Amino acid sequence: MNYPKRVKVVEVSPRDGLQNEKQIISVDDKLNLINDLRTAGVKHIEVTGFVSPKWVPQLGDAKAVCAGLTWDEGVHYSALTPNMKGLDAAIEAGIKEVAVFTAASESFNQKNINCSIAESFERFAPVIEKAHMHNIKVRGYVSCVLGCPYEGAVNPEVVADVAKKLHDMGCYEISLGDTIGTGTPLKAQQMLSLCAGQVPMSQLALHFHDTYGQALANIHACLELGAGIIDASVAGIGGCPYAKGATGNVSTENVIYMLDGMGIETGIDLAQLIAAGQQISEVLRRKPNSQVNNALSVK
Ligand code: HMG
Ligand code: MG
Questions:
Q1: What is the pLDDT of residue 100?
Q2: Domains of the chain
Q3: Residues of 57-82 as b/e, b for ≥16 C-beta within 10 angstroms?
Q4: Could you say which ligand is closest to the alpha carbon of residue 99?
Q5: Model's pTM, two decimal places?
Q6: Quick check: 2 pLDDT over 90?
Q7: SS3 call for 204
């Protein structure tokens, strides 16, 4: 076993979580969520997306959310930027880390960002270049790494090729998205191993949605191979509007409980994280989609 001693957790609930909510969530509620996560010791928070409000109206308040952020030393806020318009808005909002996103599936990419995989690279090249000119770090997402809602099975070699391309273009970290949560542990290991043949393992992140209840098992399998970056969403909120039926990311509470139990450090306080999950669940008027939160919050 090659477990890491410490794991970097990237909290994606304000973006991935809230992009998929039918109800309107106020800017204040979004900022409360971000502040609660900060209080719990979360150091990497994807706060919003500068995407087209025609495509994702839930994130139409990106500018206002960024204007209300409290900037603490050591806390890193990031935002999605699908094109130059998004990057320019992120720069204006003072964001210091952005993420571009493409997929290992042509059909999903067309539905999600209205272009082919090759076109997405052409679109990202000047975005990454300009971001770097402004000292902004760029993360790259690959969606559909373990299955596509439109094409079914996805070739892991294609995932590794897309990851390599993003890395070669200057993305400092590549997040591997099991967008619809269909992956299982051995397939996750195979996919990660192929990616790690192209991009250093220390720059690969696991972004697993929990639609089939496999996310934690898949994360554990990948930790065995030495993966050290995990994307997660408090209370398990989330999903992609362009992947029908996709539910939330693995809940951060479940991840932290497992890592605490394995003696792997994260710097995140589970009790405060539970409180953050309770708070946003109250706003959303439903129970957290997290067994650990539900079990510990009644104690
Ligand atoms: P398009 O329609 O081809 O773009 O969309 P366009 O350039 O023709 O623009 C259309 C309109 O949107 C124009 O407005 C633009 O100004 C505006 P109009 O002139 O008609 O009034 N527009 C923008 N507005 C604000 N910010 C922008 C922006 N860009 C254009 N950045 C586009 C192409 C990429 C913009 C669109 O497809 C889009 O925004 N897609 C985003 C979809 C999305 O956010 N999906 C969810 C996130 S990805 C995800 O969840 C997966 C992930 O979690 C990993 C995983 O789980 O796998 C990351
Ligand atoms: Mg996602």
A1: 98
A2: 8-298 (3.20.20.70)
A3: ebbebbeebbebbeeeeebbbbbbbb
A4: 1
A5: 0.98
A6: no
A7: strand
Measured by CA distance, the residue closest to atom 17 of ligand 1 is 52
Ligand nearest to the CA of 249: 2
Q: Specify the long-range contacts of residues 274-277, CB closer than 8 Å, at least 24 apart.
A: 275/36, 275/40, 276/33, 276/36, 276/37, 276/39, 276/40, 276/234, 276/235, 277/234, 277/235, 277/251, 277/252, 277/253
Query: Are the C-beta atoms of 261 and 292 separated by less than 8 Å?
Result: no
Distance from the CA of 80 to the center of ligand 1, in angstroms?
10
Nearest CA among 86, 93, 89, 20 for reference residue 101: 86
Which residues surround ligand 1 with Cβ inside 6 Å? Answer: 16, 19, 49-56, 80, 82-83, 85-86, 89, 101, 112-114, 141, 143, 177, 179, 207, 209, 240, 242
User: Would you please indicate which residues are annotated as catalytic (active-site) residues?
Assistant: 240
CA 82 – CA 100 distance, rounded (Å): 5
Ligand 1 pocket test, pick from 16, 51, 98 with the greatest ligand atom count within 8 Å of Cβ, gives: 51
Length of the chain: 299
Question: How many angstroms is it from 258 CA to the middle of ligand 1?
Answer: 35
CA–centroid distance, 299 to ligand 2, in Å, is 31
Spatial distance between the Cα atoms of 251 and 153, rounded to a whole number of angstroms: 25
Write the pLDDT tens digit of every residue in 194-252. 999 999 999 999 999 999 999 999 999 999 999 999 999 999 998 788 888 889 999 99
Q: Which of 61, 54, 53, 59 is nearest to 16 (CA)?
A: 59
